[in-house]
Amino acid sequence: MSGAKTYDVAVTGAGVFGAWVALHLARRGKHVVLLDAYGPGHSRSSSGDESRIIRMGYGADEIYTQWSQRSLAQWKELFAATGNEALFRKTGVLWLAEAGNAELQATEEVLQRNGVLFESLKRGGLIARYPQINLDGIGCGIYEPESGVLMARRAVAAVVAEAVRKGVELKLAAIAEPRGKDAIESITCSSGENFAAKEFVFACGAWLAKLFPGILGNRIFPTRQAVFYFAIPGGDGPFSPAALPTWLIKNDECYGMPDLESRGLKIAVDRHGETVDPDTQSRIVTACEVDEIRRYVAYRFPALSNTPIAETRVCQYENTANGDFLIDRHPELNNVWFAGGGSGHGFKHGPAVGEYVAGQLVDGGAPEPRFLLANKETVQRRSVY
Ligand SMILES: Cc1cc2nc3c(=O)[nH]c(=O)nc-3n(C[C@H](O)[C@H](O)[C@H](O)COP(=O)(O)OP(=O)(O)OC[C@H]3O[C@@H](n4cnc5c(N)ncnc54)[C@H](O)[C@@H]3O)c2cc1C
Questions:
Q1: 16-27 and 152-165 helices cross at what angle (nearest 10)?
Q2: Other C-beta atoms lying within 10 Å of the C-beta of residue 252
């Protein structure tokens, strides 16, 4: 190892979390190497899909509303500075639920308190505005006009490009589990190359459970999640972003987006699928998954009952037990950090995660208790959505 370059920080994982951690550290003057086994936003990573929702509503979980606000501002700032404005699509986000839904009521209170622009909609108004949705069982809605969609894969590429411009070194390297006592001096990749640094951040998404089996094997729960794009009728119709916002229907456990970049109606089930290994799970949708989504689309979007499925993707959530992020030090190695547990809602928060991790490494300060390893249970009870 003599003569090897020593970085201030080695960040392993160039998904949305690792990319923003590297960028924020570089902005704070740190010399950073960003390592990924397969490349930023690759197709098996959680950040690798075309699009991800950014919304402010989080029920009573105000910290995530505030992090979404901070993150949206930073996403827009980055896109404006790098000529990537098209990577945020202000489709608006529509929450739908039965009348009197407690989570929507809590969401309204939090949005109000945090100055988020929103509109409360009653059933009559919803029916008039969204004739393309069958609103059976829906009694109220919240519309966030300033929220929308991040073009995920390309957004990660834009963050990494900016990080590299700021001096971050990007390398393809599959890193092995770090071992040592109290602290480590370097990490090693499969080709045997060492990367020496003062501090190490592991932002490895679903792979955290595999890389640190002893500590995280039963605290990060990777689940299979299928995504569908339904073909829509030709012309500028009811599934265009002008007519249909991004939407989430609470009790259906489903969400979707209008026709962005001509991919069709994106739709997915938010319920956790089976436990998977992110390296080996099949990326091909099953007949069962197709049947379920076809029945759902025929029910909620009757005009699309007989249209073909144009594209599919299979990804994984990297859940903690309740959906809170995991951002904390390794319990034995005091210069090793975990940043993960995005739990199916993490993408939008990349900028705030990066800012927080950089703050913890550079300034120290009191950590957010919700993110600590000590608060990560080994039995799943999802409460953050
Ligand atoms: C279907 C689906 C829909 C979602 N919808 C939304 C949404 O609408 N809005 C939202 O905000 N969030 C959403 N999410 C969640 C969000 O996408 C994730 O929380 C987020 O992308 C996680 O990013 P990450 O950087 O932690 O992990 P990843 O993107 O998985 O990145 C981890 C990286 O670490 C690398 N890595 C792992 N192990 C090693 C190793 N040993 N050596 C080197 N590199 C390694 C991997 O190659 C990978 O690139 C969704 C997720 C899915 C799957």
A1: 30
A2: 17
pLDDT single digits (tens) 274-293: 999 999 999 999 999 999 99
319 touches 276 (CB < 8 A): no
CB within 8 Å of 341: residues ≥ 6 apart:
208, 220, 318, 319, 320, 324, 325, 326, 327, 376
Per-residue confidence at 89, pLDDT binned at 50, 70, 90?
very high
For residues 323-342, average pLDDT: 98
What percentage of the chain has pLDDT greater than the value 90? 97
Indicate the average pLDDT of the chain: 97
In this prediction, residue 250 carries a pLDDT of 87
pLDDT (mean) for 48-76: 98
Q: Is ligand 1 within 6 A of the CB of residue 204?
A: yes
With a 6 A CB cut-off, is 195 part of the ligand 1 pocket? no
pTM: 0.98
Query: Do residues 214 and 310 lie in contact, with contact meaning Cβ atoms separated by under 8 Å?
Result: no
* Bridge partners, residue 181, by sequence: 183
Asked whether residue 2 carries a pLDDT value surpassing 50, the answer given is no
Indicate which residue's Cα is closest to atom 21 of ligand 1: 47
pLDDT at position 3, please? 54
Tokens of 6: 């020593």
Nearest Cα residue to 312 out of 52, 133, 49, 53: 49
Find the 317 Cα to ligand 1 centroid distance in Å: 7
Q: How distant, in Å, are the alpha carbons of 56, 100, 168, 177, 208 from that of 64?
A: 8, 23, 28, 30, 22
Choosing from 52, 153, 177, 229 the residue with most ligand 1 atoms within 8 A of its CB, the one to mutate for a pocket test is 52
Q: Is 219 close to ligand 1, i.e. is its CB under 6 Å away?
A: no
Closest residue CA from atom 25 of ligand 1: 15
